[in-house]
Amino acid sequence: MVWRDPIDKKQGVAPLNYSILNNTYKIDPAKTPYERKKDLHDWLENLAKMWGSKNEWWISGAIALSMITNTYPRTNTNTDIALIRKKDLLEHMVKQAEEYNLFLFRRLRSYKISKNDPIKYEVYRPISIEDAINDYWKNRNLQFCSVDNYGNIIPENSIDTRIKLYLHHTNKHNKLISSEKNLNIGEINPRYLPNQTIYETNDNKKILIVNINYIRHIKEKMLSNWRWSKNPKHQQDMERILLFLNEHPAYSSPLPENLAEKLAT
Question: What single string gives the DSSP state of each residue in 214-234?
């Protein structure tokens, strides 16, 4: 149990290390692409309700790739968010997420006993907003984790139980730099983070989406690193990206203004 006080959950999460065992990370639910698309749109509705009143964060990763390419090969994945490292933005996100039983943690470790082990072991520790903001390089691997009604971190990976944050900051040369040093992402081209809406609720809460070349940039970094280079899903994602850019060369530049309208059809 993660609660400081099981009687009063508003006291938040106790500052301890929490180990979880994930034995479903290699198992993707048997769903059709239509069902996965519906799951994703339902989740985007919740994301918009949580954070849609604020800008300076963008859907990225597998979800963004699915929305841009209109392909839905899996839903057993994290939700990836690119965002500007600002205290007021993170305060807003943390406050709203906790209403949905999502709490901010730093993942300390993730490992398997053997290469083909169907079980993945992970260690998480809650992190304060101040620590997340103030130390660019130490406090990476930040994630919102879903906590169930019994106070346990839900071990299964899915789009609504794990939200991974990629924070970016401006350096002394006024360049936008990724704080996710683990991947050595480095400088971020500002055009990778356009003011482009991918989803909007009836009450005008919006979700922005990264440029597909941002996803390509991260996948290239992953595939050049021995830790991720042999992972089939990253190779498959790169194939999807290259196929899409070959069929839609205009998307190599900033996303067209009517992207959301196209994807809704």
Answer: HHHHHHHHHHTSTTTTT-HHH
